[in-house]
Design goal:
Keywords: Amino-acid biosynthesis, Branched-chain amino acid biosynthesis, Cytoplasm, Leucine biosynthesis, Magnesium, Manganese, Metal-binding, NAD, Oxidoreductase. Helix content is 41%, strand content 20%. The chain is an alpha/beta fold. The protein has 2 domains: 207 residues, Isopropylmalate Dehydrogenase, CATH 3.40.718; 137 residues, Isopropylmalate Dehydrogenase (3-Layer(aba) Sandwich), CATH 3.40.718. Strand 11 and strand 12 form a beta hairpin. The chain starts with a strand and ends with a helix. The protein binds 3-isopropylmalic acid and magnesium ion.
């Protein structure tokens, strides 16, 4: 199989973690005779510095013409005070997701047994956790109308949370279909006791639920969900929620897996899907080879699964990660007593070796 992949390292640790995911894919390619062709392009602050815009036309074109996109991370303090349309977040990543029609962001929250002590949460609480959070990605609070105006006494700032029935149905359908292939439990998270958009969300999801009588549907307020995720995460199978709620809940849920550096993501729904770790550019550790590349390598596994239908190959990456963790290798964020501290590159090397060695 020949696969054209756009590689967008972006900012901060992006340039350190993306090469490790490429290494893993190349190992898979060598082992199974697939050809992964990587073309690198600029995005975020790196693009802004080089060509003056955070999302160059050329980058967007490359993504559209590729079979999948692998992204590192964007943003950093250097660009924080720019006008919003130039900032890496609002000026590159959000429009890229929107332009590619990636309305669904899948974030698996899985605990690897080897990392059970890496989490700050109690063992018995997190053991056996396997949650898939489906975050709506091209609507909601992130994409509604925004305004900032001067008033006689100061300023007024407005963000709008907008959803249409169609947008809710689209993401909810994907969530029901996904739940059907798992433990058949779907929890829809909203704030329907306060927000009108959430009331429409809840009505729409409930209505669609009639088509899925085999899936157990529950509704939960987002504040309660935040609490339940740390109280007893095992109660969840699939969670579907609004864009911002999903952003916040997944950072929180990542601690169940030991570190934000373990949380992969797949953004799907368009012709070309995008794979990126759920974490940010971590400017505080950028350039120090400390970053954990596992979230990005796991995102590459999701790419093999969702974009190329290469299930066996995807599992090879996942198993390689398990073996490397079982052997005790740890980046700083998941380091424990008795662990073998490795840097970003070494972690990538160990994983690539395991991919090649495993039957
Ligand atoms: C994420 C990130 C992004 C988001 C930022 C960088 C815009 O936090 O992918 O979770 O909020 O979507
Ligand atoms: Mg986030």
């Amino acid at each position: 199989m020949i696969c054209k992949i756009a590689s967008l390292p972006g900012d901060g640790i992006g340039a350190e973690i993306v090469p490790e995911a490429i290494k893993a894919l190349q190992a898979v390619g060598r082992k199974y005779g697939h050809e992964f062709i990587f073309t690198e392009a600029l995005i975020g602050g790196a693009a802004l510095d080089a060509v003056g815009v955070p999302l160059p036309e050329e980058t967007l074109r490359l993504c559209r013409e590729s079979d999948a996109v692998l992204l590192g991370a964007i943003g950093g303090p250097k660009w924080d005070n720019l006008p919003v349309h130039l900032r890496p977040e609002a000026g590159s990543l959000l429009p890229l997701r929107k332009e590619l029609g990636l309305y669904a962001n899948l974030r698996p929250v899985v605990l690897y047994d080897a990392l059970i002590d890496a989490s700050t949460l109690k063992k018995e609480v997190i053991q056996g956790t396997d949650i898939l959070v489906i975050r709506e990605l091209t609507g909601g609070l992130y994409f509604g109308e925004k305004k900032r105006e001067q008033t006689p006494t100061g300023q007024i700032a407005v963000d709008t949370l907008v959803y249409t029935t169609e947008e809710i149905t689209r993401i909810a359908r994907l969530a029901f279909e996904t739940a059907r292939k798992r433990k058949k439990k779907l929890c829809s998270v909203d704030k329907a006791n306060v927000l009108e958009s959430s009331r429409l969300w809840r009505e729409t999801v409930t209505e669609l639920g009639r088509e899925y009588p085999d899936v157990e549907l529950t509704h939960m307020y987002v504040d309660n969900c935040a609490m339940q995720l740390v109280r007893w995460p095992k109660q969840f199978d699939v969670i579907v929620t609004e864009n911002t709620f999903g952003d916040i809940l997944t950072d929180q849920a990542s601690m169940i897996s030991g570190s934000l550096g373990m949380l992969a993501s797949a953004s799907i729904g368009g012709k070309v899907a995008l794979y990126e770790p759920s974490h940010g550019s971590a400017p505080d550790i950028a350039g120090q080879k400390k970053a954990n590349p596992i979230a990005t390598i796991l995102s590459a596994a999701l790419m093999l699964r969702y974009s190329f239908n290469l299930e066996k190959e995807a599992q090879d990456i996942e198993k390689a990660i398990v073996r490397v963790l079982d052997k005790g290798y740890r980046t700083a964020d998941i380091m424990q007593e008795g662990g073998i501290l490795v840097n970003t590159e070494e972690m990538g090397d160990r994983i690539a070796e395991e991919i090649l060695e495993a039957k």
